[in-house]
């Protein structure tokens, strides 16, 4: 049987790990998965999960791939035995959380490099061959942070918004090549993402003024609540990848949860942004006055019972 060759970035933990093992252990036996990791020393949990799920031999291989390094990406591509990748999953990313002024230049550049430039490097390595073969799927771990702004996630959201633009643009151009792009838009998911935040939680908080630090503390309470109440397991998200993968004509966007769609609609329904900003502010900082800008001039923000998404 000619198996579907899948290559996934960022498989040391979380969504990438789960997706790799899910596909490699699929009862159809129809996937050959290349699970790639920035650092192969971190592959223990992946193999443990593969054993637990009973992945057949030869359904799963690991490769070193650091999206910051185009030579590493090219080397990984060269090691794919089948000489082709049918499904590319752009999953690797890093988070950055805290007041803007608390981020070091290195942390900011690192997150831009991994999340945006790293994704472009990966595409540049794998898309040309898909185009030559006139066939392929690109799946992307998207985020509600790419569809709406979230306080204290400014740079992270900037990177995820960038990916929306990148993939939406490609999706328009690629159909004549038989290539489909799908973003799997995730709300909060229980993974190691928060433990691996670039620069740690909050960054250099002493660089921020007292009021900003106070707002950040309140945001963290909100964030913890949202994660406790709304976060999904990676297994749930993985099934959404499978839905996209099985679709004969895949959509550009799939949502792992409908919970946050009202906020997205609010953004679209009032293009001025006033309604969204006021609603998001009121929900994250319920006792805080929104200030003159949010209150004056713009359309009245509807009451929303929907809390904003957690930040990934
Ligand atoms: N968790 C959430 O709430 C959530 C919500 C929406 C979207 N997402 C998205 O889901 C995706 C996966 O994140 P996750 O939640 O599963 O968190 P995770 O467990 O931290 O996974 C992130 C993966 O990216 C890898 N990575 C980081 N830098 C890399 C690099 N330079 N080259 C290659 N791989 C690199 C990490 O590897 P190392 O271990 O080596 O650093 C890790 O394997 C990300 O795109 C994230 O933005 C997550």
Automatic annotation (TrEMBL):
One of its GO terms (molecular function) is 17-beta-hydroxysteroid dehydrogenase (NADP+) activity. Residues 287-312 are annotated as: Disordered. It comes from Otolemur garnettii (Small-eared galago). It catalyses: 17beta-estradiol + NADP(+) = estrone + NADPH + H(+); 17beta-estradiol + NAD(+) = estrone + NADH + H(+). This is Estradiol 17-beta-dehydrogenase. Coiled coil: none annotated. Residues 288-312 have a biased composition (Low complexity). Signal peptide: none annotated. The gene is HSD17B1. Its EC number is 1.1.1.62.
